[in-house]
Amino acid sequence: MRKLAVWVGLVLLLAGCRPIVGPPSVAPSSAATAGLPGVGDPIFPLLGNTGYDVQHYTLDLTVDAARNLLKGTATLRSEATQPLAAFNLDLLGMNVSAVTIADAPALFARSGQELTITPTAPLDAGAIFTTVVAYDGTPTPLADPELAFIKQGWNNRDGTIFVVSEPGGAMTWYPVNNHPTDKATYTFRITVDEPNVVAANGVLRAEIDLGAQRTYVWEMAQPMASYLATVAIGDFVRIETPGPDGVVIRHYFPPEDVDALTRAFANTGEMVTFYSELVDDYPFDEYGVVMMPFSLGFALETQTLSVFGPEMAMEGVNAHELAHQWFGDAVTLDAWDETWLNEGFATYLQRLWLENELGGDFLDKGMRQYYENLTVFKTPPPGAVEEATLFSEAVYERGAWVLHALRLKIGDDLFWQFLRTYYARFKDGVVSTEDFIATANEVSGDDLTDFLNAWIYDETMPPIPE
Ligand code: TRP
Ligand code: ZN
User: Fold this and answer.
1) CA 419 → CA 209, 355, 406, distances in Å?
2) Which pLDDT value is given to residue 149?
3) Radius of gyration (C-alpha) of the chain in whole angstroms
4) Of 41, 166, 453, 463, which sits 20 to 30 A from 249 (CA to CA)?
């Protein structure tokens, strides 16, 4: 039998194909297989990869902002989650010059957004291993015709660089396991020509003066999804104020607008207090926005440092991106057809802050007005959206209505308890709509499955609970 197995294996090997019927018994290491090139996301099947889990990224990059050139290394500390003969990272564009694993040169191949890496010897399940990718080039942001409002990833406008990656743009500027299901911590070491300033996620740990250049070392110590990783390079002034409970509030503003923007964002510390009391302590060490000197038409909740266009410098938008730090960033959707888990929560919490400011029944009144509009315009349901509707009214407004309906149904006390339980349970991780429903059932002590499914998936909105 054994002889036969070896013989069959040899024939298959010579024929250039791999056996498809279970692992051959020749050598133990041959049980190692390649990780898959995608995690099976329902909308973006090639985002992320299987077979390993990244723990930490160190991005050591020198950036020529004027010429938009990036050169450096990405060092990934990962754990193999299976015996691993090869695995993929996601990287779109850029030139890869070398890859090592545990300091040994590794084979690599590229195809579209897939960078396939083959270590000299297979990795054991559970092994912690370090991959270093040396690369360079001009990043090209991702233009997705279905999400036409933004080019995802690394953008350069007149020498000012900003990174807005949701959902897939992270792979335009570093090799990454590009799906929210693999969160990791980050160190950014970004070297630029003077007098450029670099802001990134987390805490500024060091500035190293190299004469004509300067290295900025930023540390993101809590797990982060790749679409939330950001770097801004340009002419910015850091405005720092102590916030509540030791949370530092630091904004990066264009120098000419510092006074007006300091006023526009003056409430940020109070907002942190408000959401901390409503939900739980702010999940990270610092918070602020980085304001672009040109209009963008959007803001993005990049972890600890939201990217803003000046036309978004409004109370409601500031509250929205801050609320995302709890819901979206600390607790993150586990698949891209569930953006309502990010946007519905941020939209609802944004209105809770505004109601706190304005008083009265601002929130309930506004929600009922939206209910009328959503009914008249036959807005589709927030659950199971498609690529073109990832960031549509269905997700924001009908998404917020899922929460308001739940609150009307179970009452304020249970609703706040639900919000805190859900947050505590999924903080630093990812969450699905099923998890959301299970938590609501558990906290309320009621079976709300049909009720919530109707709000999330039915074409027409259910009647407002009495
Ligand atoms: N999440 C953003 C918000 O609602 C919207 C958004 C989605 C976005 N994808 C983006 C913004 C890409 C900028 C770039 O707050
Ligand atoms: Zn949002």
Assistant:
1) 45, 18, 11
2) 86
3) 24
4) 166
Question: Length of the chain in residues, anyone?
Answer: 466
Alpha helices of 129-265 — where are they, by DSSP H?
A: 258-264
Spatial separation of the C-alpha atoms in residues 105 and 307, rounded to whole Å: 37
Predicted local distance difference test score (pLDDT) of residue 143: 95
> CA–CA separation, 18 vs 21, rounded Å?
9
| Pocket lining: 301 vs ligand 1, CB cutoff 6 Å | yes
- The residue segments making up the domain with residue 398 are 331-457
166 ligand 1 Cβ < 6 A: yes
Interatomic CA distance for residues 254 and 224, integer angstroms: 26
Look at residue 31 and tell me if it is in a domain. yes
Determine the angle formed by the axes of helices 412-426 and 399-410, rounding to 10 degrees. 130
Our answer on whether the CB atom of 349 is closer than 6 Å to any ligand 1 atom is no
Q: Which amino acid is at 331?
A: V
- The answer to whether residues 135 and 95 touch, using CB atoms and an 8 Å cutoff, is yes
10-residue mean pLDDT profile of the chain (466 residues): values are 33 35 43 95 98 98 98 98 98 98 97 97 97 98 92 97 98 98 98 98 98 98 99 98 95 98 97 98 98 97 98 98 99 98 98 95 96 98 96 98 98 98 98 98 98 98 96
Q: Which CATH number covers residue 399?
A: 1.10.390.10
Residue 347 Cα, ligand 2 centroid: separation in angstroms? 7
Measure the CA–CA gap between 347 and 324, rounded to whole angstroms: 9
Domain boundary among 235, 250, 274: 235
Residue 151 lies in a domain: yes
Give the Å distance between the CA of 346 and the centre of ligand 2: 6
Any ligand 1 atom below 6 A from CB of 343: yes
Q: How far apart are CA 341 and CA 363, in angstroms?
A: 19
Q: What are the φ and ψ backbone dihedral angles of 189, each rounded to 5 degrees?
A: -120, 100
Q: Is the CB of 142 under 6 A from ligand 1?
A: no
Closest listed ligand to the CA of 341: 2
Tokens read off for 18: 């791999």
Q: Are 388 and 365 in contact (CB under 8 A)?
A: no
| pLDDT for 367 | 98
Determine which residue's CA is closest to atom 3 belonging to ligand 1: 300
* Structural domain count, the chain: 2
Last residue of a domain, which of 208, 235, 262?
Answer: 235
For tokens 């133990």, the residue is 28
